[in-house]
């Protein structure tokens, strides 16, 4: 996780019931408790005293001042902190986008604004902030602040996991074991749970034990051999999460993209080209216009499947 994430990170207490894996309504691996250092979760909706940031202030200085104010937990300080964070966030400061997004989500220093929180976390997540990726995924998977997007939320969760977010690694184990937002993948479930266990998560061993009970011994041994030596995360895995989403959404849209393994082979490239042609998209390969179209296609698929 990046240094900014460590400075302002929130902690998660996760409760996962494995018997409910196959029932989306029973799958609650999201936030049970959110705590922020010095946090007071019940805040008044407004603070009368106006506060402005001088135009000459640079984004990093405003962010640093906001951190000091935010940690006091006092009402007036939280309001001022959010003004400073908004100033920095508008100027592209990733840490400010993340912390302001969490404050908007929790209602710290003002009203709860989940839609604004989701937009801010998206900005930080796109800049590679692992904690922002994790909480954005949680919001998308649970339909907070906007539409529920299972597959797109799962790819954000996997990107957070690939960036070292241990809670996301645990969540990816559950996602792959349940097929939430995609298809069941026991080897990938065990791989992410094993990584979470390796990184000190105390829930992961129990989930691994429950996962092993779901498959026969020969298959479990084959799965263990398949993931052997892969505990260390390949730097390419975050990008593969995006490719895996592309493959899944193309397959669901009727374009044969092949195995959803996160590796863009000939079948995936052909499916991408066919989809781009059908949607009259300029350019080539996996880019933002393609991902936008595929998100819409996958969202329609998920809503129809409900």
Automatic annotation (TrEMBL):
<feature type="domain" description="Peptidoglycan binding-like">
    <location>
        <begin position="244"/>
        <end position="286"/>
    </location>
</feature>
<dbReference type="InterPro" id="IPR006597">
    <property type="entry name" value="Sel1-like"/>
</dbReference>
<dbReference type="InterPro" id="IPR036366">
    <property type="entry name" value="PGBDSf"/>
</dbReference>
<dbReference type="InterPro" id="IPR002477">
    <property type="entry name" value="Peptidoglycan-bd-like"/>
</dbReference>
<dbReference type="Pfam" id="PF01471">
    <property type="entry name" value="PG_binding_1"/>
</dbReference>
<protein>
    <recommendedName>
        <fullName>Peptidoglycan binding-like domain-containing protein</fullName>
    </recommendedName>
</protein>
<dbReference type="Pfam" id="PF08238">
    <property type="entry name" value="Sel1"/>
</dbReference>
<dbReference type="InterPro" id="IPR036365">
    <property type="entry name" value="PGBD-like_sf"/>
</dbReference>
<dbReference type="InterPro" id="IPR050767">
    <property type="entry name" value="Sel1_AlgK"/>
</dbReference>
<dbReference type="InterPro" id="IPR011990">
    <property type="entry name" value="TPR-like_helical_dom_sf"/>
</dbReference>
């Amino acid at each position: 996780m990046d240094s900014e994430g460590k400075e302002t990170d929130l902690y998660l207490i996760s409760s996962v019931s494995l018997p409910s894996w196959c029932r989306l309504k029973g799958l609650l691996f999201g936030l049970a408790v959110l705590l922020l250092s010095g946090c007071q979760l019940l805040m008044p909706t407004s603070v009368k005293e106006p506060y402005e940031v001088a135009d000459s202030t640079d984004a990093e200085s405003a962010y640093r001042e906001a951190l000091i104010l935010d940690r006091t937990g006092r009402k007036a300080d939280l309001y001022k902190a959010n003004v400073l964070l908004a100033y920095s966030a508008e100027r592209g400061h990733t840490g400010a986008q993340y912390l302001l997004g969490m404050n908007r989500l929790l209602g710290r220093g003002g009203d709860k604004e989940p839609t604004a929180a989701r937009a801010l976390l998206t900005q930080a997540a796109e800049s590679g902030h692992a904690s922002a990726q994790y909480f954005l995924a949680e919001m998308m998977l649970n339909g907070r602040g906007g539409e529920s997007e299972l597959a797109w939320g799962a790819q954000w969760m996997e990107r957070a996991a690939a960036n070292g977010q241990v809670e996301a690694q645990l969540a990816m184990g559950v996602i792959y074991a349940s097929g939430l937002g995609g298809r069941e993948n026991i080897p990938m479930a065990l791989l992410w749970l094993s990584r979470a266990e390796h990184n000190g998560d105390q829930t992961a061993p129990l989930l691994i034990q429950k996962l092993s009970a779901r498959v026969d011994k020969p298959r479990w041994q084959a799965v263990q051999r398949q993931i052997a030596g892969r505990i260390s995360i390949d730097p390419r895995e975050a990008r593969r999460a995006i490719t895996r989403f592309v493959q899944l959404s193309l397959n669901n849209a009727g374009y044969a993209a092949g195995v959803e393994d996160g590796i863009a082979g000939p079948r995936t490239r052909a499916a991408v080209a066919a989809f781009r042609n059908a949607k009259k998209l300029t350019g080539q390969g996996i880019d933002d216009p393609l991902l936008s179209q595929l998100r819409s296609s996958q969202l329609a698929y998920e809503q129809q499947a409900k």
